[in-house]
Design brief:
Length: about 160
Amino acid sequence: MRWRSLVVGSFLVVSGCGPRGGKGGATPNGSEGVRHLTVDAKKPVTLVAQYKQGQKVDIEPKGGQWSNGGGMGMVGPEGDPKSLCMGDGGHHCIGGDAVAPVMGLIMLMTPCPIEQVGCNVFGRDFVNGPMTLTVPRDGYLYLAPNDWAEAIGDNNGSVQVDVTP
């Protein structure tokens, strides 16, 4: 299997605010073995774990299908290659405008739980295949569908992703 490496940092979009996510119990600490996650198309974000600066994290999309509704066919975690997600002033793409295809798998990093008021996204990128992330600073890692954050209620399906550690 071929992995591509990614160092999240200065080349990623920095945003003033990110999509708000669900509530939950204890946060995984990022030291567990392989985690088999399901990323639901109807959830703005799925928490992976909390990580420390310098940790290596392997992210591997494994399959599944999802759609953003509205007549779009089902696609895998690579999204619709013919359609970049674009905001329109009132709508904002979870992965940022023109960064990744509609319904492509997106990773986000925040310094605090994303549902916390004022918690800003400091890194985001399109996960278009297996990759190794070097965590740039302490924070929380999330996975998400690349769709308008304000319009995910009509989405369908899910994708599976393995994350190590």
